[in-house]
Design goal:
Helix content is about 35%, strand content about 15%. It has 22 helices and 22 strands. Strand 10, helix 10 (about 260-270) and strand 11 form a beta-alpha-beta unit. Bound molecules: NADPH dihydro-nicotinamide-adenine-dinucleotide phosphate.
Length: about 600
Amino acid sequence: MTNNDPLLERLASDLDFDLKALRKKYVFERDRRINTAGTQQYTEVSGDHAKFEQDDPYVETPMSRDALSIDTDVVIIGAGFSGLMSGARLTERGVVNFRIVDAASDFGGTWYWNRYPGAQCDIDAYCYLPLLEETGYMPKEKYSFAPEIFEHSKRIADSFGLYEKALFQTRVTEIRWIETESRWSVSTNRGDRIRARFVIQGTGPLSRPKLPGIPGITSFKGHTFHTCRWDYNYTGGNHKGGMTKLADKRVAIIGTGATAIQCVPFLGASAKELYVFQRTPSSVGLRGNKPTDEAWYTSLEPGWQRQRRQNFAAILQGEPAAEDLVADGWTDIVRRLGNALMSRDPEDGDLNLEEIMLRSEIADFEKMNELRNRIEQLVNDKDTAEILKPWYRQFCKRPTFNDQYLDTFNRPNVHLIDTSDTQGVERVTEKGLVAGDTEYEVDCIVFATGFEATSAPHRRVDFSTIGRNETSLFDHWKNGFRTLHGISSHNFPNWFTIGINQNALSPNFTSMFDDLAIHVSYIIASVLNSDFRTVEVSAEAEEAWVQEIIQTTNQARNDFLAECTPGFFNHEGQDENLQNLPYGPGINAFNALLAQWRNEGELTGMTLS
Ligand code: NDP
């Protein structure tokens, strides 16, 4: 809506802030952050940087074993929640002859690797921790800390007999379709020879760390690690802090995303000096964690978890919902918009999309103003408070919630370094980091710089997938994802993936993965129970789904992201290929579509042979 629209003029005049000025400020802050290198500004953690990913500081006993030669029904690659859900859902369908391969030494995926102090799920635990009803577990708090989630991963593995099927400390190096055997050959770094009728690739959207392409990283003579390989041998302490070995250390942390927000308070409490290098501030809302009310929990009726997840998804998608079961910072904006629409003047005539967009923009401005005011209230130094203020709409970046982060900047040993003018840290030297005209000498650099979440497929997965006719999956997807329902591709028979591409996206990843695992397990069990050997997406069905994704792409969401500060949500501010975007109607609609597909029982769009 333009700045001169009469409705805008009228609504703006009722506000206690200048809407047009705020719009201008957001554009200004966005434009000065656009980096023309886009996603190329990041460096892959291979070659000289491989240690940031390959080191496993948590392994208790490095394993030694002979190479295996086995034949199995299914190989699941990845023991995170995609792999766990696949294992559980296959087992429920009576498919028990499978293996799960992972580089880690246990189940958990993200929650195996991310053990940094303060790590916590930012989604309501009653939605986030899967299979609560099946395993009979009650989360301790509304938002679980990492050790509890890791324990729950192990609980799921135990409950479904997955440990005996696991091949840990094993990296897949290639998977290749063997036409003459109608099987996949799975190669590993341990020289295993594994044959599998089916493969489920559940390698996770946030599994490969990335580094900023700052010159000089390898020249630094001090200690470095990425947050997903927290080095407690160096820092001392544990998940709860107490990192006594940092008492005489000057520490730098690069990045202020969802991860840094959680670990900075602990670093601030332990390090002699802490330098927080910020390029774009996160929005930091109130966490307000609380213990689970046992009486409430035990009163829940069977099926409550699916209902709660659907309710959360419906609210975030703006679908009608009688109540907001989760009622937290995620659902707050949508609730506010609902209230604004209910209280609108009937004389304003019929409600149209433009008005909804304008009212949601206003609700967002109000919410972000509150968050900016919160910073002023909590941070004593006015200049520091100003630098910590986010100037973008709340869902431009993953919203964060924390009750200690902002106060940490009141500590005399904690220094916020604003690198927004130079689009980040400029250089790493032997002794430290350069930003502006200053070199900050430090003993340790912690990279809280995120993951290869939306980069090219070959950067997100560190092994190749070679299908029928020597087709490489990376080539097949080089001009954009090509799948049916985001789970399988033409020329890749008996191959499935569970991830975030070409399906519906929810911030509650574990719930998405579970829904996809239910679907994939259904297909695999159907084929195993038939006389057919292979199932493969037809070229036509794949193309039809690509078109469906393009056509259902939510234009309003795209316009929204185009105006956001750069980050991995909006492809670092570059145009995104429409076929790489999620299914527009949202996760509840997507799940209904999959359920109907299964009910039809025809495996429509797939060829059996
Ligand atoms: P992010 O990608 O969100 O953050 C990376 C940070 O590094 C950003 O602040 C970025 O700044 C900064 N950065 C990158 N390059 C430079 C540079 N050259 N100089 C200075 N700063 C730089 O990674 P996170 O690990 O924080 O979070 C990733 C995702 O992990 C989240 O979105 C979320 O999905 C998940 N997560 C989930 C949690 C949960 O509770 N479930 C908890 C933690 C993480 P800029 O913003 O300017 O690009």
